[in-house]
């Protein structure tokens, strides 16, 4: 890795909002940022090449067709204790610049440039440790209260050097600072269920979650999007308070109100992928006036500035000329000259770090000290916190508990009424087999399909929290599945208890317990498949579309509709993959293996002209099952549950890896 150089760059004196210790503040600088969109198809080649600075350095060369230049020679500086707003019309490159500074979402671009913190080059890992990123969409577990959510974040984000008492005190302080005291015990709320926080309160909660670790730099992506002017003012006021604490706050924003505009300390105005102004917000209108574009009276300054930087259809040449004039005047100004001087110093000092496949090279040293591991909390702490949160979600979420309980009870009662006290006799052999297969089918479909949207709904929250280094993939997966396991034991047990005794199956405790074990295993295999499909496809609509493709063939070859020996040879493999078959076979053997005589067989055969099984062994044989396979079926169901759940974990892990 190249040697990191420290620079003493020339800048005009800049006031700060508060007096803070330089050790805890970070000045962020970026120079010569170029970004080009990458074509869908590219060829990447890795070569191991000697370097004058490092003997063994991996160089990644990306061969691609760049279809559009998004950013062109962008430079700027953000100061601690000040709030900087990145503004511009749609397509100006605001979000791309923010992605460059945060070193996120750069997989599909060719980028180059240098990002410095306090004059030193910085790696992606270090940037994530000393900064926080408040994204545009607010993702929370809606069943948790504000205080519970912040305590969860504090336990996993604040290092081991903090005690539980210190974490609790920090949470209470942040609640007060962000103006969340009135709603601290209120549930966050879900889009189509629980009512909770307003949009502005959710956005302030996003800030509260990020400032628990006292980051030096805070990035915000369109924090006022979707909020009215009053809520927007509250959110920007919260950002201003963070800046007054000595943090470097950078935000992209679209159409701020005039009140919001007055809260900004600095502006970075962009047009056509270039910086046209970067300096104090209160001097922007003077600059526009000097360029010959004075802002009309009683006009929102932000709206006017953005309108002058927009490229209108049919007036492209005129708009480009106006933008070039504004940019040219900025380069002649005091701040423009100083910024260009710093950019020149960076080039001369050869501190430019090429962005390699969207990731900036660099390292942290000196004042950039952070923990050696990516995660602040231990694996066990992560597991405990996620397990507790998942348990609260199950208890408080109506769809996950109450609705399913009612659903299971109604389905079990209907089945019990239809097949009430079906005693063993020649005319009820097929009926009893139908009860057994119906149990297998019910515990599959009643749990499997509702499970998919529950997983995909939480997936964006997991991906964001994992990307922020809050917890590991394996800790999340094991904790979530462990928290849900009692639910998927209790509900099939309830169904089996009602159906087994009311339907008149063998009145034997051992047979009942074995049937309960079988339905529990079938349920968990079904849930494992739901997990795998949800983690593979990621979206509810797509996952629900493909789930029947996997399940329906398993149902068809489950042993009830067609005997195993009657299946064509080219479909035999589906029979061996069918968990319906193993569950149905286990229940069938459990029910019929102890039956020595089936009453009424002779009379039934005479009346119907068909052969009739005389005992349970013949019933099992007719279905091409084997009595000796009783516990083998249980073992196979258990192995299938573990293997499919592991496939789901691998799919989730790969989904995380591909996002990096």
From TrEMBL:
InterPro entries: AAA+_ATPase (IPR003593), ABC2_TM (IPR013525), ABC_transporter-like_ATP-bd (IPR003439), ABC_transporter-like_CS (IPR017871), ABCG_dom (IPR043926), ABCG_transporters (IPR050352), P-loop_NTPase (IPR027417), Pigment_permease/Abcg (IPR005284). One of its GO terms (molecular function) is ABC-type transporter activity. Residues 54-297 form the ABC transporter domain. The keyword Chaperone does not apply. Its main location: membrane. The keyword ATP-binding applies. The chain crosses the membrane at residues 399-420, 485-503, 509-534, 546-567, 630-654. Keywords: ATP-binding, Membrane, Nucleotide-binding, Transmembrane, Transmembrane helix, Transport. It holds the Pfam family ABC2_membrane_7. It is found in: Membrane. GO terms for cellular component: plasma membrane. It is a multi-pass membrane protein. PROSITE patterns: ABC_TRANSPORTER_1, ABC_TRANSPORTER_2. Belongs to the ABC transporter superfamily. ABCG family. Eye pigment precursor importer (TC 3.A.1.204) subfamily. This is ABC transporter ATP-binding protein/permease wht-1.
């Amino acid at each position: 890795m190249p040697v990191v150089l420290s620079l003493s760059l020339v800048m005009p004196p800049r006031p700060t909002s508060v007096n803070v210790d330089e050790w805890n503040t970070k000045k962020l600088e970026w120079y010569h940022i170029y970004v080009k969109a990458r074509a869908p198809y590219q060829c990447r080649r890795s070569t191991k090449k000697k370097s004058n600075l490092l003997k063994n350095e991996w160089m990644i060369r990306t061969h691609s067709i760049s279809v559009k230049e998004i950013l062109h020679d962008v430079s700027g500086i953000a100061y601690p204790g000040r709030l900087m707003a990145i503004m511009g019309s749609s397509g100006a490159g605001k979000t791309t610049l923010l992605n460059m500074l945060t070193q996120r979402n750069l997989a599909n671009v060719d980028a180059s440039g240098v990002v410095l913190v306090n004059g030193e080059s910085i790696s992606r890992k270090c940037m994530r440790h000393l900064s926080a990123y408040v994204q545009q969409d607010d993702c929370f577990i809606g069943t948790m209260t504000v205080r519970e959510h912040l305590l969860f974040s504090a336990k996993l984000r604040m290092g081991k050097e903090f005690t539980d008492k210190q974490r609790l005190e920090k949470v209470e302080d942040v609640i007060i600072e962000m103006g969340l005291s009135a709603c601290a015990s209120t549930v966050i709320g879900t889009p189509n269920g629980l009512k909770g926080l307003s949009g502005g309160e959710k956005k302030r909660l996003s800030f509260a979650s990020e400032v628990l670790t006292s980051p030096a730099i805070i990035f915000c992506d369109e924090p006022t999007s979707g909020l009215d002017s009053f809520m927007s003012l509250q959110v920007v006021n919260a950002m201003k308070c963070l800046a007054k604490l000595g943090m470097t706050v950078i935000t992209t924003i679209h159409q701020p109100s005039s009140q919001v505009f007055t809260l900004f300390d600095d502006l970075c105005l962009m047009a056509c992928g270039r910086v046209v102004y970067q300096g104090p917000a209160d001097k922007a209108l003077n600059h526009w006036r000097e360029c010959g574009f004075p802002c009309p009276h009683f006009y929102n300054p932000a709206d006017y500035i953005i309108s002058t930087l927009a490229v209108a259809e049919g007036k492209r040449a005129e708009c480009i000329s106006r933008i070039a004039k504004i940019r040219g005047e900025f380069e002649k100004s005091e701040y423009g000259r100083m910024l260009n001087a710093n950019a020149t110093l960076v080039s001369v000092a050869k501190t430019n770090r090429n962005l390699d496949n969207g990731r900036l090279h660099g390292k942290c040293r000196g004042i950039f000290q952070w923990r050696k591991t990516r995660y602040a909390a231990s694996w066990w702490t992560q597991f405990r916190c996620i397990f507790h949160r998942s348990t609260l979600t199950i208890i408080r979420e109506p769809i996950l508990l109450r609705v399913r309980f009612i659903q299971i009870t109604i389905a079990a009662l209907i089945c019990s009424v239809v097949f009430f006290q079906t005693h063993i006799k020649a005319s009820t052999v097929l009926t009893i087999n139908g009860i057994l297969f119906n149990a297998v089918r019910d515990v599959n479909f009643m749990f499997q399909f509702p499970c998919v949207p529950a997983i995909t709904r939480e997936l964006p929250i997991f991906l964001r929290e994992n990307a922020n280094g809050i917890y590991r993939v394996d800790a999340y997966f094991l904790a979530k599945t462990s928290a849900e396991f009692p639910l998927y034991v209790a509900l099939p047990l309830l169904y089996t208890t009602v159906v087994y005794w009311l339907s008149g199956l063998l009145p034997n405790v051992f047979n009942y317990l074995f049937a309960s074990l079988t339905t529990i295993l079938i349920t968990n295999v079904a849930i494992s498949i739901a997990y795998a499909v949800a983690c593979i496809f990621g979206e509810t609509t797509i996952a629900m579309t493909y789930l029947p493709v996997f399940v329906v063939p398993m149902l068809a070859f489950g042993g009830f509709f067609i005997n195993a020996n009657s299946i064509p040879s080219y479909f035999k493999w589906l029979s061996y993959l069918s968990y319906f078959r193993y569950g149905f076979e286990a229940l069938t053997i459990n029910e019929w293996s102890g039956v020595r005589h089936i009453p009424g067989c002779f009379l039934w055969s005479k009346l119907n002209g068909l052969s009739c099984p005389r005992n349970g062994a013949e019933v099992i044989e007719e279905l091409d099952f084997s009595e000796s396979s009783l516990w083998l079926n249980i073992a196979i169901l258990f192995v299938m549950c573990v293997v499919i759940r592991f496939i789901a974990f691998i799919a989730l892990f790969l989904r995380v890896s591909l996002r990096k």
